[in-house]
Amino acid sequence: MNKFEKNTLRFLLVFGLISFFNLMRKPPVKDWMLIFLFKGYLSSILDKLVVRKGYISYPVKLFKSFDISFIFDYLLYPIACVYYNQVTKSSNLFGIFIKTLFFSVPMALVEHFFETRTSLINFKKGWNAFTSFYSMTITFLMSRSFIAIIRKLPNKQIPENNPYKGE
């Protein structure tokens, strides 16, 4: 691992931790935490699948025990998703789709830069920046749909006639 790549991963880790604490200051924190955890779970499963199928590899890692990109899957991508959901919270359907591009296009470009100029990520078997763009766009929209469904669920969980509701 050369010094640039090692420092890049360290910078991204520190940047991600600072961003995480910053984004959790804006209400409703429960929604943002739910999105963060959902996106981390979803992206880690999908990344694990893509790595196992041989489409992507991560030759340089900060945490060697993971074959996926730990910093991206569990920190940076979920943070970007929370920011995306904050920006689209009051948007109509068209605005949601347009704002998705403002997140997925730059992320795909950065990933392309890392793939072509560093050893942080390698695309294989036909995977490319466009595939990353499409997959990020779809998962951003999935997370937005997930939180929209959660927000529509009723808050009341204990029926009025339940003798165990507490007095």
TrEMBL record:
This is Uncharacterized protein. The chain crosses the membrane at residues 68-85, 92-110, 130-150. InterPro entries: CBO0543-like. Keywords: Membrane, Transmembrane, Transmembrane helix. NCBIfam families: CBO0543_fam (NF041644).
